[in-house]
Amino acid sequence: MLSEKFWERKTLAQMNDLEWEALCDGCGLCCLTKLQDEETDEVVYTRVVCPYSDPKTAQCRDYANRSVNVPACVQLTRQRVAEFDWLPDTCAYRMLHRGQSLPDWHPLISKDKESLRKAGIGLLAIPVVVDTGTLDYEDYVIEHP
Ligand code: SF4
Ligand code: SF4
User: In this structure, is residue 7 part of a structural domain?
Assistant: First the structure.
């Protein structure tokens, strides 16, 4: 059972596992391939999505084994949240870490599983291309995920 507006009363570090997991809105944007500039460290997103992502639902098709299936799949933890600056601006972990409020379309606020889709947020709003391992990612760079 989630406590009332826990995201306003607790820091990310104070949240329990259930609360931490509930922050994820399921947008799937973190499953897009990112490119990092070797000199500036700047990260840009592409519309190429991990082959384990289901483009119909934006969910991982084998979440339990994600680190085995895709060694580069990073697990988001409270201890490392400050490192996750590459997450999209709409990601609840990034927003709370930056001191921002959750948006109205976040399912914790809207209580509506469809609110992301209605707001045009997430993987389902992007014409994604599934990674085949042979794509030139530079051809698929997007401005904002
Ligand atoms: S970008 Fe953030 S909110 Fe969206 S699926 Fe990834 S962790 Fe969850
Ligand atoms: S393994 Fe799953 S969670 Fe990890 S990037 Fe791929 S689709 Fe996303």
Answer: no
Nearest ligand 1 atom to the CA of 58 is 5
CA distance 62 to 33: 17
Number of domains the chain is built from: 1
Question: Two tokens at 91?
Answer: 């990601």
Domain that holds residue 39: 27-142
Pocket test for ligand 2, best of 21, 30, 34, 50 (most atoms within 8 A of CB): 50
| 32 pLDDT above the threshold of 90 | yes
Residues 117/110, Cβ–Cβ less than 8 Å: no
Q: List the beta bridge partners of residue 49.
A: 32, 130
Could you tell me the distance, in angstroms and rounded to a whole number, from the CA of residue 127 to the centre of ligand 2?
Answer: 17
Cα 113 to the center of its chain, rounded Å: 16
Q: Is residue 6 included in any domain, yes or no?
A: no
pLDDT tens digits, 87-130: 999 999 999 999 999 999 999 999 998 999 999 999 999 999 99
Going by CA atoms, what residue is nearest to atom 3 of ligand 2?
60
**pLDDT tens track for 12-21:** 999 999 999 9
- pTM for this one? 0.93
